[in-house]
Amino acid sequence: MFEYIIIFKFTLLIIFLTLIMFSLANLFGSFFINNSIEKNSVYECGFDTFSLNPIIKNFEIEFLLIALLFLIFDLEIMLLIPWILFYSHLGIFGYLIFLIFLIILLIGFLIEYFRGILHWNLAIKKN
Asked: What are the tens digits of pLDDT across the range 11-25?
């Protein structure tokens, strides 16, 4: 039971520190905002800043898909690292389970590739 009290206290500390940081950012953020002409000018890539364009532009869904795929495969790499560290303790059962996991990942990656999710050119994309 003592272990759970420590976790509860740590969670409360994290929530408290997060609220303090957000409060300080809202309180002092307006003092440090620089609304100069250079800051609101067009970037080197030619895109207008958001403050100059009051109408929200359509967001390309490809950026979201690539971000989600990155998160998925990044989390899978995080699962791979502990498996590598404890490989000798898992035995053949652990090896087979993780082999099945990697095969499922490979199948998911191949489905994404052949459906054209990873292609940036919209003309190549298949529905």
From this structure: 999 999 999 999 998
